[in-house]
Design brief:
Layout lengths: L19 H6 L2 H10 L2 E4 L4 E4 L2 H9 L3 E4 L2 H7 L9 H11 L5 H21 L6 E3 H18 L6 H15 L17 H23 L5 H7 L10 H31 L2 H9 L4 H11 L7 E5 L3 E3 L2 E3 L4 E4 L1 H4 L34 H18 L4 E2 L7 E2 L5 E2 L3 E3 L3
Parallel strand pairs: 2-8
Antiparallel strand pairs: 1-2, 3-5, 4-12, 5-8, 6-7, 9-12, 10-11
Length: 410
């Protein structure tokens, strides 16, 4: 007679000591241990279960037993109905609202004309200086200006757009909870609230104008497309998705560009290859997105019914956070995953998510990053990292380098 071995429960009491500060500074050690000991585990400081391996993340993201839910801090920041946290008809409507401008055939029509002049203009401001802080002077500005113009926010300065996404980011990732499941730092949302008020003060007049006189901006299309003649979507209905764009969509290409550059700087011979052969830029970007996923652990799902996954019994209504940045460092899929390697065998990564809530802007974001790096390497082919300055990454929900100093011979 055979017997079924008893399920052993790993000792995860060490998770009680994990803090948000630790996760924001460097989440990798915690998640490396989670992948080895408990690919699905409850993390007290987050007040939620965390999926840390590719297998569990993909299962949660694609299983019909789960549906989208926004994290508590995300819900407090964006409100309802944010596109990343809704299901059914509302999700279908919001996706139908945002997707037309992000379809490959449409992106191919406008992206070069949109992004390349922005990148060139930014480079002209510092290419003769012989040094720059690339996050602030190039990576983030090319990202926010491109999307800002697409949304119809041409008159909003780059620094304002960068400030908005930084403040929304701090609010969205203010995720720590106490032993009662209440926010440990409720005042941490106040600056995000002020940012939203500033956004509404700018966008409300534009909505008034586009309601009466439709334009070609993305937000104008969101108001009108798919609606009966003479009707528009309510502004309160689209604002949560505007905030999603002003945070995730604004920062992802910028942080992807910066992370790719940091990775290439760590492999000078590979940087030289990419500079000499621009056709390698998309491959460099793909590895940069895997290496440091800009949307590191910002999305979640919730069980629709009782589920047993990775040896864990989850009752209906249990939220699970998807840690795509951790999944992209799984040693089962990648050799030496913490090393940037342009020549790594190409495997699908999870930087853009999975399932029907995968990022709608994958194609757009990849082309923004490609064009920006093409222009940077064309203008400054002898780019080097300024090794007198450290590179520090920050973030758990969203992650990227806080600064990147570079030098070159003029």
């Amino acid at each position: 007679m055979t017997t079924t071995p008893e399920r052993t429960t790993p000792d995860l009491t060490w998770l009680d000591d994990v803090t948000m500060t630790e996760l924001e500074r460097n989440p990798y050690p915690v998640y490396e241990r989670l992948r080895a000991e408990a690919p699905l585990a409850f993390v007290p400081v987050l007040g939620a279960y965390v999926a840390s391996t590719p297998e569990v993340c993909r299962e949660v993201a694609t299983s019909p037993s789960f549906e989208a839910v926004i994290t508590p801090a995300g819900g407090r920041t964006f409100g309802h109905p944010a596109i990343i946290g809704v299901n059914g008809e509302i999700h279908d409507d919001l996706r139908s609202m945002v997707e037309p401008a992000l379809q490959p055939v449409e992106v191919d029509r406008y992206v070069d004309e949109l992004v390349r002049p922005i990148a060139r203009q930014l480079l002209e401001q510092f290419e003769d200086d012989g040094r720059a802080e690339l996050v602030a002077q190039f990576c983030e500005p090319v990202s926010v200006r491109s999307l800002g113009n697409l949304l119809g926010l041409e008159d909003v300065p780059n620094d304002t757009l960068r400030d908005w996404f930084a403040r929304l980011n701090r609010s969205f990732t203010n995720a720590a909870v106490d032993e009662n499941g209440e926010f440990a730092n409720p005042e941490g949302f106040e600056d995000g609230d002020r940012a939203k008020a500033e956004i509404q003060a700018v966008v409300d007049p534009l909505i008034e104008k586009w309601t009466k006189e439709p334009g070609d901006s993305a937000i104008s299309h969101w108001l009108h497309d798919g609606m009966p003649e003479g009707q528009t979507r309510d502004r309160d209905y689209i604002y949560p998705t505007i905030y999603v764009y002003l945070l995730g969509a604004m920062q992802e290409p910028g942080h992807g560009i910066a992370s790719t550059l940091v990775g290439l700087f760590s492999r000078p011979e590979q940087l030289e290859e990419v500079v000499d052969d621009p056709t390698l830029v998309p491959r460099a970007v793909s590895e940069g997105m895997r290496w440091t996923s800009p949307i590191w652990s910002a999305t979640a799902r919730i069980t629709k019914e009782p589920v047993t996954l990775a040896g864990v019994d989850l009752p209906a209504g249990t939220p699970v956070m998807l840690s795509y940045g951790s999944a992209n460092h799984d040693t089962g899929d990648y050799d030496a995953p913490s090393t940037y390697d342009l020549h790594r065998p190409p495997l699908p990564h999870l930087a853009f998510g999975a399932g029907n809530h995968a990022c709608a802007g994958i194609y757009y974001a990849n082309h923004v990053m490609r064009i920006a790096l093409e222009e940077l390497f064309e203008a400054i082919p002898n780019l080097e990292r300024d090794t007198s300055e450290d590179v520090e990454f920050w973030g758990w929900g969203f992650r990227g380098p806080t600064s990147l100093h570079a030098t070159w011979e003029v």
